[in-house]
Write a structure and sequence with these properties.
This protein is α/β, with parallel strands linked by helices. The protein has one domain: 5'-nuclease (Rossmann fold, 3-Layer(aba) Sandwich), CATH 3.40.50. It contains 7 helices and 5 strands; from the N terminus they run βααβααβααββα. It has a 5-stranded parallel β-sheet with strand order 3-2-1-4-5.
Length: 140
Amino acid sequence: MNVFIDTNVFLDFIARRGDFYAPAATIVSLAYCEKINLMVSALSFATASYVLEHHYKMSQGEIIEDYEEFITLCGITTIGHETVRLSVDSAFADFEDAMQHYSAMIDGADCIVTRNKKDFEMSKLPVYEPQEFLDYIVGK
């Protein structure tokens, strides 16, 4: 199963954000154990870098070190002409969410995991909150 995680879930894991960390870490561990194929947008790495540096006061070296380890576990979806075109033409209220969605869709994601399901109401893919996804995957 190709599982795309939104920037917020990616940040939950990398920044070890409180109560949000455990579900994110469990999802990442599923990728580590090769139970799922984890996918993250190239856009998420750029956005997360800014947040990690400015809000979590991580150095670029710390961020790169975390990224080097993380990219061994995931596929990185592309942001190209088609992604931007579809996002511009979409009915998504938020352009960044449209970019995430179409990046996931174009690169073959089966679902999106995010903490903001309402932002993905226009999604053509199933959308889960982290714990909801974990409950779903355990029930399979």
